[in-house]
Amino acid sequence: MAVRAGRIRIGVGGWVFEPWRDNFYPEGLAQKQELAFAASRLTSIEINGTYYGSQKPESFARWHAETPDDFVFALKGSRYITNRRVLAEAGPSLEKFLSSGILELKDKLGPINWQFMPTKAFDPADFEAFLKLLPAEREGRPLRHAVEVRHDSFRNPDFVAMLREYEVALVTAGDSEFPEMADVTADFVYARIMGTREDEPEGYASAELARWLARAKAWAKGEPPEGLDRIAPETLPKAPRDVFLYVISGAKPRNPAAAMALIERLGAG
């Protein structure tokens, strides 16, 4: 009997990047058609603009309309929430973000990635206060939250236990200069891989793509992936999990090719 698995979605960060007009988008494609084209080749995209500033509700509605029915966006939470000394005071900014129109994405609203600066250290009391601010739903729509931490002080089993208590995912940063922490802490997995290279047409060598795909499949089945660092023993029950994997940074012009190569291999079994 086949093992049931969660859905694996694979994509990149954003869709407006001039070098992609040379090696991803067809020549002459209008910029206003780039999202539709990207969404026809990928299964998810992480929206970066929400990190840098507020977006209009009409923009979220348009992005919903321009993408396939089963497409899903991840959002980066506003930097005005995460880049602050006292996270416990982020309530008003968080409310502003959640009221900015993100629900216009409707069923295409995926996880929200709350990314922290590399200088942000783990303050248990303050970080738990932040987690308490994250709502599980908004106007009846469930919300999924993930945190991307980049300071070694977060290599702490207490941090992992805290995320599991609040059912918030820990973003796995792969092939990067940032701490690699692949502990599963929620009912979904969020990974950002950052090792694409210019000299590889598909961003990664074939064996590297196979390795990341195997990891995504393991996560989707509720199994621990091979070759990734974890901080604490596994305590969550084995269960299928949705996986969101984004090819980010690295040799950015190659990222769509890497994401499409992973999707192709996933479809091939």
Indicate the topology:
Layout: E1 8-13, H1 20-23, H2 34-41, E2 44-47, H3 49-52, H4 57-65, E3 72-76, H5 79-82, H6 91-98, E4 109-115, H7 124-133, E5 137-138, E6 141-142, E7 145-148, H8 157-166, E8 169-170, E9 172-174, E10 188-193, H9 206-221, E11 242-247, H10 255-267
Parallel strand pairs: 1-2, 1-11, 2-3, 3-4, 4-7, 7-8, 9-10, 10-11
Antiparallel strand pairs: 5-6
Short structural description:
With 269 residues, this protein is an alpha/beta fold. Helices cover 32% and strands 17% of the residues.
Report on the architecture of this protein.
By secondary structure, this protein is α/β, with parallel strands linked by helices. It has a single domain (8-267), classed as TIM Barrel. It contains ten helices and eleven strands. The protein has helices spanning 20-23, 34-41, 49-52, 57-65, 79-82, 91-98, 124-133, 157-166, 206-221, 255-267; strands spanning 8-13, 44-47, 72-76, 109-115, 137-138, 141-142, 145-148, 169-170, 172-174, 188-193, 242-247. The strands form two sheets. A nine-stranded parallel sheet has the order 8-7-4-3-2-1-11-10-9. Helix 7 (124-133) runs parallel beside helix 8 and helix 9 (206-221) crosses helix 10 (255-267). The protein is globular and about 50 Å long. The mean pLDDT is 96.
CATH fold-level name: TIM Barrel
| Spatial shape | globular
| CATH architecture descriptor text | Alpha-Beta Barrel
Instruction: Please report the distance between the alpha carbons of the first and last residues.
Output: 16 Å
User: Roughly how many Å is the radius of gyration?
Assistant: 18 Å
Assembly form of the protein? single chain
Identify the strand order in the major beta sheet. 8-7-4-3-2-1-11-10-9
CATH superfamily: Protein of unknown function UPF0759
Query: How many distinct folded domains?
Result: 1
In percent, how much strand structure appears in the residues? 15-25%
Helix content: 25-40%
E-strand count: 11
The poorly predicted ranges are: none
Task: Find the structural class using helix and strand composition.
Answer: alpha/beta
The number of helical runs is 10
Mean pLDDT: 96
Q: Note the main sheet.
A: 9 strands, parallel
Return the CATH class. Alpha Beta
Give the SSE string: EHHEHHEHHEHEEEHEEEHEH
